[in-house]
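Quick start: what a row looks like.
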Amino acid sequence: MTTIALIGAGGKMGCRITDNLKDSTYDMRFVEVGERGLVNLEMRGLSAAPQDTAVPVADVVILAVPDVAIQKISADVVPLMKTGSMLIVLDPAAAYLGHLPGRPDVTYYVAHPCHPPLFNDETDVEARRDFFGGIKAKQAVVCALMQGPEEHYAIGEQIVRAMYAPVIRTHRITVEQMATLEPAMAETIGAGVAMFLKSVMDEAVKRGVPQEAAKDFMLGHLNIELAIVFDEAGNPFSDACQVAIEYGRPHWLKEGWERLFEPERVREQIDVMLHPEKLRKDI
């Protein structure tokens, strides 16, 4: 039986993983020190295990902690790990910047959920409202074997499928590719575009459109527009819409946005995320 030590088991992400693994076939050790986290574990009928005793016996250690804390926490955890064990981190940021300790005898595995897709076949009401995933809605996951023997990839993938369940598929990529996906694609640009779209709707409301009408119109149009762009709808934009797109693009889309995907800019984005005090207003 594989022994897993879950660090931060009572935190926001930790609780999601705890709920999926607490009744699994894995021998779980739930590590938590925060007052609120301890209460969360108690509410689930679980007891916290001391880090110093849980980590040395674990075959796999999962760090369910904030990105900004991974460097510090991994510096305490990794030296306690036994040779041949595996560390799983849930985001590429710290790994990409080289913030994990040097332990060539320990496997480093990075896994991040894709979250339930916008276009899906969910029929259950709870599943349709599970926007994050890991509860009812099916999602994909990206995985990277950063270091360690090749056979450890399958071991990590099996654990990832259990902790992010239900999982429809996994994608094997590199840590560098994962950093391209997040933050560059999904957060720096994707989340920014989402907030921009909300601002666009708010502007229509400011100009007199009833808010409920504006929201229904915006979300309905985004549904079909995204379906067209991502080849889900099977039909193109109308001729008039394509003209409107070309007319508006230079007014709201800054040229050169592709530079955000250049390795040095990706590294800069992650560095700022982990050290928000470095954020400059001109970035």
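That is the whole record. The longest strand covers residues 139-147. The CA atoms of residues 30 and 48 lie 5 Å apart.
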